[in-house]
Amino acid sequence: LIELSQSGEIIQRTPATNVFSVQALDLNGDGDMELHHESAGHTCALSSNSHDAPDCLIEERKGWLQFHYSGGKTEELLLETPGHTPDSVWRLRDGSTAAVRTIQATAHLSAFMMWDSTGNPVYTHVFPFSTLGLAAFIDGEGQERLLLGAGTSLLEVTRKGG
After folding, report:
1. 3-class SS string, 94-156
2. Which letter, b or e, does each residue of 13-39 get, where b requires 16 or more Cβ atoms within 10 Å of its Cβ?
3. How far is it, in rounded angstroms, from Cα 89 to Cα 37?
4. d(CA 8, CA 6)
5. Given its phi and psi angles, is residue 98 left (phi above 0), alpha (psi -120 to 50 degrees) or beta?
6. What CA–CA distance (Å, rounded) separates 147 from 39?
7. Is residue 1 within 8 Å of 19, Cβ to Cβ?
8. What is the CA radius of gyration of the chain?
9. What is d(CA 136, CA 157) in angstroms, rounded to the nearest whole number?
10. pLDDT tens, position by position, for the chain (162 residues)?
11. pTM of the prediction?
12. Count of other CB atoms within 10 angstroms of residue 56
């Protein structure tokens, strides 16, 4: 996996195999974008301002979504649906976390999940689609918005207080 600058210069090379997708996101809420990639069985985020080991490895273990941070810190979020390793995970500015995962592609079932800043599950919804897309961004007014792609629809997730 090679991260390039806007001018095409190599910023960093990271050993990675079987990469499904790559995203840039602020996973840890520090204001810096991290390069996030998904590969067989786990997701990994790399800091854009560090060329060291990954800041965070995200994987599923026995019904828990685990975040393994450099320095040894581990955080767990309860997964309320069965399925594959989450396809996309976003840590939002308020400390909450959103994720989507495929439950069973052949049965056209996927789930959208959210946890509050303390790690408690606050919302889970199962959709009749093989896969879902998820993206967070800051709009022109400085407000964080969360979009969910489901089939041919693009939905905005509205949260209480936000």
Report:
1. CCCEEEEEEEECCCCEEEEEEECCCCCEEEEEEECCCCEEEEEEECCCCCEEEEEEECCEEEE
2. eeeeeeeeeebebbbeeeeeebbbbbe
3. 10
4. 5
5. beta
6. 23
7. yes
8. 16
9. 10
10. 677 776 778 877 776 665 655 666 665 666 666 666 665 555 555 444 443 444 566 777 778 877 777 677 778 888 888 877 677 777 787 888 888 888 888 888 899 999 998 889 999 999 999 888 888 777 888 888 888 888 888 888 887 654
11. 0.67
12. 22
Amino acid of residue 4: L
Contact 85/70 with Cβ under 8 angstroms?
Answer: no
